[in-house]
Write a structure and sequence with these properties.
single chain; 231 residues; Type Iii Antifreeze Protein Isoform Hplc 12; SH3 type barrels; 3 domains; 5-stranded antiparallel β-sheet; 5-stranded mixed barrel; cilium
Length: 231
């Protein structure tokens, strides 16, 4: 049998094997769509406009086709910027793969409208609202001007610089000897008590309170001057 006849004989067989091999691989688009849908749902509550880009899944993968795909990320992973997303197959043959994706968030933030000095109390005229990619800015960039107006700057700031929460010293809402409401909450209940604050605290800072019965507890100062106890 000459070379031409051999080729004619084996070509359909080889083509069939290639077709079977291609069918045996996991279809990449299904994996990519699973990741995209997962990220769209998980980022629905983020501020601003969210843009998601998923890197292509290997078209030459050797994974068996899956009927049930499930995307996941480890606990406490922030879906912000570049992230790795896992995809597991639950049936018929278990396997796990990882894709990288980029979550870009675009929205409004605040920057210094002019040079600001350390210790300066911020006024609305000191702030300028800008639009941009929040995922390319410091994580604690200020998104709400009402939360920083009246606060002091820890250090100086040049004009046009993004304003960060870590650069802000919020006014104290609790002072030593102040009568405060101490509140503990849980599933289906709220318990309130009263006491006297033992230290100064701005919103979000820890404050120690001596309750009316003499016991001392620690909680988080709230913007209204009350104290929230932890779980």
């Amino acid at each position: 049998m000459n070379a031409v006849r051999l080729f004619a004989f084996f070509f359909p067989f080889a083509l069939g094997l290639c077709s079977l091999a291609a069918e045996a691989r996991q279809e990449p688009q299904a994996v990519e769509q699973t990741v995209r849908a997962f990220l769209q749902q998980a980022t629905a509550g983020l501020p601003g406009r969210v843009q998601i880009e998923v890197d292509p899944f290997d078209p030459y993968n050797q994974l068996p086709p899956c009927r049930q795909l499930q995307a996941f990320v480890p606990e406490n992973v922030r879906l912000w910027g570049r992230v790795a997303v896992g995809v597991r197959c639950t049936e018929p043959t278990p396997w796990t793969a990882y894709l990288t994706a980029r979550v870009a968030v675009f929205g409004a933030y605040y920057q210094s409208a002019r040079p600001l000095r350390a210790g300066q109390v911020l006024s609305p005229d000191d702030l300028r609202r800008e639009e941009g990619e929040l995922t390319a800015l410091p994580e604690d960039v200020v998104l709400d001007a009402s939360r920083v107006v009246g606060a002091r700057l820890r250090g100086s700031l040049a004009a046009g610089q993004p304003l960060r929460q870590s650069q802000i010293v919020l006014p104290d809402v609790v002072s030593p000897g102040m009568d405060v409401v101490v509140r503990a909450t849980g599933p289906g209940f709220v318990v309130e008590n009263r006491g006297k604050a033992l230290n100064r605290a701005a919103p979000g800072e820890t404050v120690r309170v001596r309750l009316e019965g003499g016991r001392v507890v620690s909680g988080q100062a709230q913007p209204d001057g009350s104290v929230a106890l932890g779980p």
